[in-house]
Amino acid sequence: MKKVIFFIFALFLLAACGKKEIHGFVVAKVWIKGHMDNERGKEVEEASIIVPVVPPPNCHYFLFHHRKPEYVPSKFTLFVANKRRVHDVDVDSLTYIKTKVGQRITIKK
Q: Distance between CA atoms of 105 and 93, rounded to whole angstroms?
């Protein structure tokens, strides 16, 4: 009997661990353009308040590392804030383009 109750409780816990929806407002959007991995990607940022960020200096590590560079695809990120925290959510390009900063959104993480 204890095993059956434990099994049902374990199934309930596993069912509760699904993807959660995030409700909130889009406070910033960041698009990192596709680039080769031996160079720094260009970031395009849209935000309601722009916070100046000093980029790190260019590192010449790749000059000494001899391998064939690979292409890194574009990455689209939305920052969604609710009353608890700010979530960063990776989305596809269509969702990124359709979403505006300040818009209320419900999205799965």
A: 16
**Number of domains forming the structure of the chain:** 1
Q: Would 7 be classed as within a structural domain?
A: no
Who's near 86: CB < 8 A, 6+ residues apart? 27, 79, 80
The b-or-e profile of 25-51 (16+ CB within 10 A means b, else e) is ebebbbbbeeeeeeeeeeeeeeeeeee
Residue 1 located in a structural domain = no
Q: What share of the chain is helix, strand, coil (3-state, %, to 5)?
A: 20, 35, 40
Contact 76, 95 (CB under 8 A): yes
- Taking the complete model, does pTM exceed 0.85, yes or no? no
Element (H, E) at 16: helix 2-16
Show the CA angle centred on residue 61, arms to residues 57 and 65, nearest 5°.
160
pLDDT digits (tens, 9 = 90+) for 9-18: 666 666 666 6
